[in-house]
Write a structure and sequence with these properties.
Chain A is built from four helices and nine strands; from the N terminus they run E-H-E-H-E-E-E-H-E-E-E-E-H. By secondary structure, chain A is of the alpha/beta class. In chain A, strands 4-3-2-5-6-7 form a six-stranded mixed beta sheet, sandwiched between helices. A three-stranded antiparallel beta sheet of chain A has the order 1-9-8. In chain B, the strands form two sheets. A six-stranded mixed beta sheet of chain B has the order 4-3-2-5-6-7, with helices on both faces. The chains are: A alpha/beta, B alpha/beta.
Chain lengths: 187, 184
């Protein structure tokens, strides 16, 4: 599907479509093997960013599972994350006693996933794991367990495959590095 | 448990589905300009798979937003009025809005969603539905783009579920009657 020209705002492609496709398949195979004997798996996608990864991951999963979504909003809309998040939409079904896999597009400071992990832990699921597509180890402020990780990536502004810059570039089929001047001048 | 074993037949195979989604993306590219920056509104849960693939084909600048709705239950079905569990993050006043739907059945919910969004004063409001079941239609609702017209059968896959299952099939299949008949 490489028919979309790379926008001028993208400095370079970090993870191309083929690389992503292969890795998503590997993650799905790993998850499928781990949950082969386990029933009642529910994938919880974190909106908005995770919907692309989740749609591909789920299609590659051979184990039965439900899909659910949650939506969060940061109290601080600025670039620097403060760690405080507000749950604006909860899952449709209860996760108590079920095997929960939180699906996130990116782990940056870790505040969001840390909050979610603790929030879900309090609901007493049968098990709780996390699946993150990209992680920026240099940015982590809190330690959050990642059970399934797509890629470790450098501390650059990444867009595409669910990741956005002010809602732009979210649906690029690859992950690209945003030109510095885009967020330094506009932001 | 083999989910595929519960499928009586494949209605739309994966390659046909993907080709059509690409075609819909192309049509959307030709309709809007970058200045329009349409906001694609996805109604959860079902439409997220379609949205993920559709937007991969969009060259025109756009944004995505989500709504989650639930039925109020018996008695409100005929009006299509639903409870909004998650509203749009953004205001759509003056925006070009494109509702992305997985399937249009009776059309009642969609007709209500259209009315609801119309009151917010968008610059334009269109609908792109992957599937439509014209034989089930109970109210008139305009669909600007339709991927496939399908017969009145229990279809699953590509976001469409039965009791939360089969959503992740990469094709559209017809569910075996014994699967949904036994739990009714």
């Amino acid at each position: 599907m490489g028919h979309r020209e790379i926008p001028a705002e993208i400095e370079r492609v970090l993870l191309d479509e083929a690389t992503i496709r292969v890795r998503v398949r590997e993650l799905a195979a790993q998850i499928g093997a781990d949950y082969a004997e386990i029933n009642d798996l529910v994938l919880v996608g974190v909106l908005k960013g995770a919907f692309v990864f989740l749609s591909d991951l789920a299609r590659n999963l051979t184990v039965p599972h439900d899909v659910d979504f949650i939506a969060l909003s940061s109290y601080n809309k600025g670039v620097v994350s403060t760690g405080a998040v507000r749950l604006i939409m909860d899952t449709r079904s209860s996760v108590t006693g079920r095997n929960v896999l939180i699906v996130e597009d990116i782990l940056d400071t870790g505040y969001t996933l840390d909050y979610l992990f603790r929030a879900f832990q309090a609901r007493k699921p049968a098990s709780l794991r996390t699946c993150v597509f990209v992680s920026k180890p240099d940015r982590h402020q809190v330690k959050v367990p990642i059970d399934y990780l797509g890629f470790e990536v450098p501390d650059e502004w990444l867009v595409g495959y669910g990741l956005d810059y002010a809602d732009r570039f979210r649906t690029l089929p690859y992950i690209g590095v945003l030109e510095r001047e885009v967020y330094e001048t506009e932001g | 448990m083999g989910l595929r074993d519960d499928v009586a037949r494949v209605l739309i195979p994966e390659d046909e589905l993907q080709a059509r989604v690409a075609g819909l993306g192309q049509a959307i590219n030709e309709t809007y300009t970058d200045e329009d920056c349409p906001l694609l509104v996805c109604v959860l849960k079902g439409a997220f798979v379609f949205l993920a693939d559709l937007t991969r084909h969009l060259k025109v600048r756009h944004e995505v937003d989500f709504m989650e709705i639930s039925s109020y239950g018996a008695g409100t079905e005929s009006t299509g009025v639903v409870r909004i569990l998650l509203d749009l993050e953004q205001s759509i006043e003056g925006r070009h809005v494109l509702i992305v739907e997985d399937i249009v059945d009776s059309g009642r919910t969609l007709a209500y969603m259209r009315r609801n969004l119309q009151t917010r004063g968008p610059a334009s409001l269109r609908v792109c539905a992957l599937l439509s079941k014209p034989s089930c239609r109970e109210v008139d609702v305009t669909l600007d783009w339709v991927g496939f017209e399908v017969p009145n059968e229990f279809v699953v896959g590509y976001g469409l579920d039965y009791a939360e299952e089969y959503r992740n099939l990469s094709f559209i299949g017809v569910l075996k009657e014994e699967v949904y008949a036994k739990s009714d």
